[in-house]
Amino acid sequence: LKIKVLKNVMLKNDALGADNRWEFKKKNIFVLNMTSSPGAGKTTLLENSLQHLTKKYNVAVIEGDLYTSKDAERLEKFNIPIIQINTEGGCHLDAKMINAALKTLDLDKLDVLIIENVGNLVCPASFDLGANKMALLYSLTEGDDKPTKYATMFSIADIVVINKVDIAPYLNVNVDSAIVEVKKVNSKCDIIALSATKPETLNEWNQWIESEIESILKD
Amino acid sequence: MHEGKIAEYVFDLVKETISDDDELKGKKVKKLFFSMSHPYTVYPDSFEFYFFELIKGTELEGLTIEYEELDPLEKSGFYLTSIEVFD
To answer: CA of A29: how far to CAs of A55, A121, A125, in Å?
Structure first.
């Protein structure tokens, strides 16, 4: 006896992701899912972005990490709510983890929630967290072949942030070729190039994130 | 590695589907049929490694798995398409 089921296996995660999204919408919170490979510079970009964002908005951060709280410790200086999620070896955050973390945050007092996902260019693509936008940080040191090699992640990004452009002269890759490679798999996403360690290069990024926040706050 | 989490979802989905379906209720599962589209977000070898470990010692132990390819233009994702049980 064979019975037809035809159910999406990710339904459970997707349903919880949709719950999270509804919760964020009700509270007018802009939620950004930050993804990248390990070492691409997510926490450094976050540190220098928070310097700017916390002056204007109420921000909270969810930090995803396999075992440590090293990244969360770097953000403690901002005196904002930071929720640490340790996946204990898990390679991504899922909607259930975010849902549980939300219960420890006062959502009525938030404008922005930034989720720093586990460094991985594969698995986070499969797990909707309920965020408004997904930013993919792509370090030039990874080489210009990554967009086509990790096409799923790049294809669902709303913005690709090309990082470490200051050391481009020492690499066999340049910003223009990286942009061409990104566009091969995602012609619709925004693309910004910067050096996360140099705050003076973050203007375009700060403008992008602010315009996204303002579009949510206006709703 | 996300296949570990997906194996858990499948385990729950199969159990829920069987308990909700009068024809399947109480029957032993023989085979699960999955379908997916390219580019794959679930790798069968990795998924099976976790899933077969998960069902050891449960009522699902002993089942086999079959996959079919979906047209990505029609549907994307990883689907449990059918459950076959012993009569």
So the answer is: 17, 26, 22
Whether residue B72 has pLDDT greater than 70? no
Q: Are B85 and B19 in contact (CB under 8 A)?
A: no
Instruction: Tell me the three state secondary structure of residue A95.
Output: helix
Report chain B residues whose CB lies below 8 A from the CB of A5: 17, 80-83
Task: Please answer whether residues A49 and A35 qualify as being in contact, where contact means their C-beta atoms are separated by less than 8 angstroms.
Answer: no
Amino acid letter, residue B56: K
Whose CA is closest to B10, among B37, B33, B26, B41? B33
- Alpha-carbon distance A83 to A128, whole Å? 19
B42 CB within 8 Å of a chain A CB: yes
pLDDT at A67 (0 to 100): 92
| Whether A72 contacts A50, CB under 8 Å | no
Record: contact A9-B10, CB cut-off 8 A: yes
